[in-house]
Each structure stands twice: as structure tokens, then as C-alpha cells.
Amino acid sequence: MGRRTREFDWTSTPVGSPDTWPQSLRSAVSTLLHSKFPMFIWWGEELIQFYNDAYRPSLGNEGKHPAALGQRGGDCWPEIWPVIYPLIKQVLDGGDATWSEDQLIPIYRNGRMEDVYWTFGYSPLYAEGGKIAGVLVVCNENTEKVLNHQRLKESEAQLGFAIEAAELATWDLNPLTGKFTSNSRLNEWFGLKPSDGVELSLAINAMIPADRERVQAAIRRALEFESGGFYDIKHTIVNHLTGEERIVRAKGRAWFNEDRVAYRFNGTLQDITEPETARLRLVEAEQTARLAIESAALGTYCLDLRTEEIVASPRYYAILGYSGPVDRKTAASLVHPDDAPLRARANENSLQTGLIDYECRLIRPDGSQCWVKINGRVLFDEEGRPTYRVGVIQDITKQKEFAEQLTLQVQERTLELRRSNEDLMQFAHVITHDLKEPVRKVRVFSSRIKDEMAEEVPSKARLYLGKIQSATDRMIAMIEGVLDYSKVAVTKELSEPVDLNEILRAVETDLEILIQQKGASVRCDHLPTIEGINILLYQLFYNLVNNSLKFAREGVPPVIGLSASPADMGRPSMARIVLTDNGIGFDPQFSESIFHPFTRLNSKDRYEGTGLGLALCKKIVERHGGSIEASGEAGQGATFIIHLPITDKKIS
119 or 274: which carries more pLDDT confidence? Predict the structure, then answer.
């Protein structure tokens, strides 16, 4: 795309010859062409198009490429223009960026209309003078990811249908906590309501006395790692309301962690009271399960460990690249040489655990390669000798490729973010230097007026000059604090004990005029010392107090209260700080969204602000490992509860 962009006749477009382009357009196009992430630009009133090599594959073949380069946006995308143009216009009119995730936007490519899913963001591009002149699109096609998710949901639905079709009861036990859950069918068999909770003791007591010890012994055996975790037993349960007895077959599996301790034990119960009915249900369940296996694109197999013959489904052979049966030796010869040791270990372990589960690469007879996932279970005869292995094989090549692509994108994005952070740090150095210089001049000249014209300046003016000097000192400190904070992500060495009482005194001093104008009072208990960053904690309480003053009720003097107490028992190293006011409050439904950036609950014509104050408060608190929450009622004031880490354990 770099070559195409250089060779393109731009004089035939409204943007003109490249040597006449503004620097902003040159920089944007250079960034786009050098990026490995899919990017697209619309520029100027005609929305002339640029795109890079990473974006090119999304246009497909026999579609819009290469005509899209230098083309007007409306001419290029007629099929989706009603959808995307309002987003473009939103950015051009106000500069507000957009973000859409897994959005279905069909486009014409590969000679036809295709359903394509995108995750994309539109951002403004500024020309010289600060005017928005274009739109930058950073996007990624997620079609395969979305379709895989839909297939997974379909498979889960089919599994649920299979359970219902077979009229199975299900149960799930956490051996570590003793928590036992069941579905509505099992509750019905016990004589309970579908919504009732079930205790493990109740499930045991629902069995007839003659079966209890035998079943409990089978459960204990299944929870031993050496057993392989399998559970298969028949017993009788009784409905405690009707007295109806039901013979069931319980089948389950225990799952073990790295320490060989069972963390889950679940399975099904099948009613086999009437053998013929049970047989029919089994046939139905088998048919439904087969449908689920086919839908999930699984190949099934049965390996005779004595003869090494394989009986498998057509899909199994197709995945291996054959049209008909193969034996174990032939199947093993397809495994990639680098993965052969992994397969050997998995086979050896399966003879001990009864289970096999591994992934490997296959080299098919036609030379193509694929990734497969193999799961199975080993069956043993009465003397403990392995006889068969049954299981499934799945082609996971696309999943592997997606995972690799995702990993590369994450690595590239991480590198871009690292570069951005370095640029931001450099920007912080420059901007803070530029800000300090005029503030320093204000401080110098006000000091000269106070010192050199001491006899000519009235006492009240000297008082005001003192306040100006105090404010400029704090401004310089704040600018330096911003510079220090820009280094936090790198150094992480700026935390120190911060006395919140001193912070609040500084806040009251800075808001002194507004407090007097509002007739407000700030009532504060003793506050603790916090382990944190001084400038950020100042900004936190400045924003909260200023917020309470700003949103005072008309004609009602603001009353702001702060108190501190130890946090609850689960957070002994945290202080709980509560700020209350008697202002206009807010509807409780906004107690969470009030912390979102640019959220405004009131008219900006009546209450000034950017909508960032409380969002910044939340970021500061979370940066200190704490939390903040809000509650209130319209017209009844607001309450903010902040948890922060303490250095002194005594909080009065």
C-alpha cells in the first residue's frame, strides 16, 4: 500500500498533489502506512480514502481493492453508508470518538455481499489550526471469532437439549465446600420444588437405607485420584412426599487439581425403573448426542488396544486425510515428528489414569498440516488390563491460528502502547516546563510589587498579593506533581505517607472564596494517614469537596461532612472515609454510571464542568488499591464512601 500510495495520481482527487498536503495529513498517512494494525483514513469534505497493508485483506478479492484508494467514501461504501456515515459525521462535527465491538456490517467483497463482524473505533484527525479535517479508523475483523462463539452457544444448547431429551437429572458437588446443586428434575424426584436448594445429606437420605452405604463407598472411591474419578452405580431413591420409589443409574466424574485433590464431582441420574422405557430413552439420548457430536465437527473412534484396529466415524478419517479405515500404526505415522514424544507420554499416562487428552500436529498424506485435539477414555477388563480406548478427535487448526494471530496483535499493541507512553512522558516534560514559566513570572512580579513597593501598596492589597504567591507556589507544586505522576508507570516509587488532614486544609484554602460565597461549612473529624501519592490524594478530595459546593441546593447553605473509621473485618488494612453533603443529590439508578467519564446528570447550562471529576476520583482511588462508591436521593444530598490503605492503625 505504500507503493500504491506513492504511485497514485492524487491530483485527480480533492486532496491534490502530495507536495501540497498539510503536515497533519502527511503525518497521519505515514503513521497509517507504517502500522501493522489495520487502519483506514477518510480526509477532507469529500472523505477521500487511505488504508494500509494490514487493512487490505478485509477488502477480500474481486471487491473494492484497489479502487478504494483515493476514492470518495460515499462512492466506495454505498451498501453500508447509511450505517457508518452518522458515526463519521459525529466525529467530524464534535470530535467525539466512537467505539463498536463485534458489530455486524455486511460489505461487498469476493464478488458478493458477505456478513462481516468488526471491532472498530473512529477518532478525529486535526489539521493545522485545530480544525477537524478527517477521521482515523482503527479496526479489526472478528468474523471468525463471532461465528465460533455462535457455534459454541449452539453446541451448548444442543447439549442441554440432549439432557432434556434423555430426561436425565443432573447433579454437581463441590467436594471442597460440600455445596450440592441439582436440576429441577432431580428436585421433582426428591419431592421438592424446582427452586428449592438441595443439601448433600438430603440427597443421601433420599436413598433407601439398603443402598446408602454402598453409594457412599462408591462416591469416596470416585473422589480418589487413583480411581480415575469415574462413578457408575444403580440405586433406589424415594419421593418423600408421595413415597414413590424410583430406580436410577447414577453416572459421574470427579475432576482433580494439580495436587490430585477433587474439586468437582458431577454427573447424571437416569430413571431405569421401566427397562424398556430406559432403553428407548438411551436410544434417543444416543441419537441426540450423535447430533451434538456432528454439529461440533467431532470425529469419534474406538481403538482395540489388543489388535490395534480402529473403528471410527467418517469425520475421523476425513480429519486424518483418508477416505476409509486406517489402523493405529498408520494414524501414528501422521503425527508431526516434534509432537511424537508428547503423544507417547499421553498414551503411556492413559494406561494409568484411564484418560487421554492432548493436542498435536498431523501431516496428512497430501502434505497439508493441521492441529488436532484428541480426547478419550481407556476401558479395562475385569483383571485390570486395557482393552479399548474410545474418544473423539477435533480439527482445531483455525482456533490455533486465531490464537497465534491474537498473540501477535497483543504483542504489537503492547509495543505501540510502550511507544505511546514514552511519547506521553516526553510531552509531560515539555508541557510542564512551558506551564511553570508563566506561573514563575506571576510569582516573581507579584513578589517585586510586594517588596519594592511596600510603602505604596495598601495592607489589603499586600494580603491579596500574599494569596497570589501562595496560589502560584501551589500551582508550581502541582505542575511538578503532574510531571512526577507521569513517571509512576515506570518508577512506581512515589508512594509515601500522606496526612489527609493536611490535604483537607489545603483544599479548604484553595476553595476559600467559593466556600465564603456559598456560605458553606466543612465539618471534618480526624482523618488518617494514607500510603499514597500526595498530589493525587489532593486532587481526589479537591474534586469531591468542589463537587458538593457546585451541586448545592439553591438557597440552602452547603454542609459538607467528612469522617473516618476502620474498614470492615475483611479489609483490616483499609480506612473507610465517608463524605456527605446536603446538595441536590442524584437518582440511585446512577450510583455506578456517575463515575463513568463524561457522564453528566444535570444540564451543563446550569452546572459547569467536564463530566470527568468523579471519573478521575475513581481512577485515583483504584490507583491506590482502594475503592469508591456513591449513594444518594434526588434533592436529599449525596454520600461518597472511599476505602484507602492506611499507614497508622489508629483512626478516631
Answer: 119
